[in-house]
Specification:
- It contains one helix and 20 strands.
- It is mainly β.
- The protein has one domain.
- A hairpin with an 8-residue loop joins β10 and β11.
């Protein structure tokens, strides 16, 4: 059976900077200007750690460092980025993150640019910025998904699937359990490479996604992974809800990845996302919208 990956969902929030008035009155919130929201995803199977940097300005330019294959930064949700035309570069991370070996963290390594592109961040929009393609084949590029169409699913949840090259096309099935349980009607059919499905409303409950190459129904499936259940809000302890399949109001995305390319820096052990060097197809879940906590 293809290995199942365990996925952790981490809370991520943009920071609001506030300054107090000298007379001890109401706090004054800093004006960050027009902003959109971004997250970064490494989907290049022959790439190891990547450093993501906006290079056009300092403010409103969240970075990501040493983002490994199948990594999503932040682990869930998004970060604020100034709206407008933005210039983004994706660099090779130092091979030695301790910087103890200068040959593994030399300027020639960390100045290597995989992707160099400009694009528009629209005010209020949410974007998944995904590095796709191959370094060896020199086809690396930035895939930009405008996530602005997700909405509050009310008493249900909503999920979408993104095919990041796990197969030329995929069919995806959703059921309470996976393994050899009979496949239900397909949730998504014929999803092309580097394409995203619509956000699909579903009832809350246990959820396993199984993905097959288009037209294939052999079990166990190529990808077979349980969605995170989520955590209900706990008002007594001031803990907000964490999105998942059992928590109403949750909206999340399942990113489907191919195996890492053997013999490359993509095939490294990375806790949570690649504990077995990403030797088989897999998936990572990321929260698009957190459920309401009610307080």
């Amino acid at each position: 059976m293809m290995n199942k990956l365990a996925f952790g969902l981490a809370l991520a929030a943009s920071t609001v900077v506030a300054a107090c008035r000298g007379d001890g009155g109401t706090a004054i919130l800093a004006d960050n200007g027009a902003v959109g929201f971004v997250r970064f995803i490494n989907a290049i199977p022959d790439s190891g750690g990547q450093d993501w940097r906006f290079v056009d300005q300092v403010d409103g330019s969240p970075p990501a460092f040493n983002l490994g294959y199948r990594g999503v930064s932040p682990g869930a949700s998004y970060q604020q980025a100034s709206a407008g035309t933005r210039h983004l570069r994706v660099f090779q991370s130092a091979f030695d993150q301790s910087y103890g070996d200068p040959t593994q963290a030399s300027p020639s390594i960390v100045s290597t640019v995989f992707i160099d592109t400009a694009f528009t961040v629209a005010e209020g929009h949410h974007y998944s910025l995904i590095a796709v393609g191959s370094l060896k084949a020199k086809t690396a590029k930035l895939l930009i998904l405008d996530d602005a169409d997700f909405a509050d699913p009310g008493g249900s949840i909503a999920i979408r699937v993104v095919n990041l090259g796990v197969a030329p096309t995929v069919d995806v099935y959703a059921s309470p359990t996976g393994g050899t349980a009979a496949l239900p009607a397909a949730l998504v059919t014929g999803l092309a490479q580097n394409a995203a499905s619509n956000f699909i409303p579903m009832a809350t409950g246990a959820l396993t996604l199984r993905a097959e190459a288009g037209g294939v129904t052999t079990l166990p499936a190529m990808v077979d992974v349980a969605a995170p259940a989520g955590v209900a809000a706990d008002k007594a302890n001031n803990l907000t809800a964490i999105g998942g399949s059992t928590i109403a109001g949750s909206v999340f995305t399942a990113f489907l990845f191919p195996p890492a390319t053997a013999g490359t820096r993509g095939a490294l052990v990375v806790a949570v996302t690649c504990p077995t060097k990403c030797a088989t197809p897999g998936a990572v879940f990321a929260v698009d919208r957190y459920p309401p906590s009610g307080f």
